[in-house]
Amino acid sequence: MTGTCPASISYPITAPRPNAADPPEILRELRDEDPLRPMTFAEGRQGWLATGYSAVRTVLADPRFSAKQELMVLPVDAPGATKGVPAEPGAFIRMDPPEHTRYRSKLIAEFTVRRMNQLEPRIAKVTHEALDAMEVAGPPVDLIQAFALPIPSLVMCDLFGIPAENRADFERAMAITDSFESTREEVQNAFATMLGYFPPLIESKRKNPTDDLFSGIANDSDFTVEELTNIGLTLFAGGFESTTHMIGLGVYSLLTNPPQADALRKDPKLVDGAVEELLRYLSIVHRGPIRVALEDVEVEGRLIEKGQPVMMSFPAANRDPDKYEDPESLDVTRSARGHLAFGHGVHQCIGQQLARVEMRIAFAALFERFPTLRLDIAPEDVAMKDQLFSTIHGLQKLPVAW
After folding, report:
1. What's the CA gap between 345 and 78, in Å, rounded?
2. Residue 66 contacts residue 291 (beta carbons within 8 Å)
3. Number of structural domains found in the chain
């Protein structure tokens, strides 16, 4: 890239949105003007915003950019944010190799495509039970609470072997951390509740291992209880929140694009491609990730100096016209291969295959059961979960009828 570097911008740049499915218009304008541009972070630190597909992918693939927690610089001051402190043992997503590799290499063995596919009957059962309850309740229902939330919640509880009698408390704590209305104190207490739950669960898995995923992880003698606690919470939170909002926003996107919903109804075989296209189109990780340069690095013709942070924008990158034709349109027949919804490089989402299976089963079953499904609210009135400090974009509620 040549020419004059544009002036630095400041966060927040993610509001308002034209609707629940589309990212803020400003992101497209910034990308089209300059896909890698200066940005001012908290406390006046100078860094960069990457909005172009090529720039985002390049930074994520380059080991000269770090994910270490102690190096992180946030775009804005967040109350209570940890600064300059290394990640706790087991919090592998905030580490670099070789520490990150030690954890991921062991965890990836539990998240095989084969194992995820073996979960299909259980996921299908959970999905159909949620649909049965919706049918009994009758319209209208909030699709988030009735469908999008129970599926990943129950699936994650199964993967962790959480006893049925403990699920309600655990799900309640998880819901508090994901709620738009929760106070910071309530969120902190909820996290404390979940962290406190893992040590006895780990002890139980070590004494009486079963065939669930967490038993395999818990019985790795290389991991301490503290490491396993943080691993468990990281995996559970990632599999719970993101999939919930992808299902909710995915249904919203299909219902507000009737030709696409009709295509999926008429040809259920399109569901695999529809899942990939929805992942590209929605890109619910709407803030970050952030990487910090470990040395001077040139990217897209710009010199990123050692210590400077780079914030990536997946929503902008996944709608880059240099990568996808007519990227602002939802097209369930599109080949959306190569999208960055799950990240890229060594930190690519470890649970992506599970998310794909859950979404594929959920979308197919929902539109088969309720072929006349529709929004029970004007699209512009749908309440979004778009908080300044939140990483994940989603919906608070999604009233539907049929």
Report:
1. 27
2. yes
3. 1
- Which amino acid belongs to residue 212? D
Segment 147-167, tens digit of pLDDT? 999 899 889 888 888 877 777
Tokens of 176: 């508090």
Helix (H) or strand (E) holding 47: strand 46-50
Mean pLDDT of 234-257: 93
- Which amino acid type is present at position 114? R
Assess if residue 356 is contained within a domain. Answer: yes
CA atoms within 13 A on the CB side of 164: 0
The boundaries of the domain holding residue 168 are: 9-401
The bridge status of strand 36-40 relative to strand 46-50 is antiparallel
In a domain, 4, yes or no: no
CA distance 125 to 114: 19
Is residue 2 a part of any domain in this protein?
A: no
pLDDT tens digits for 193-213? 888 889 999 999 999 998 888
**CB of 395 within 8 A of CB of 154?**
no
Q: Which two tokens stand for residue 311?
A: 């914030």
**pTM listed for this prediction:** 0.93
CATH of the domain at 227: 1.10.630.10
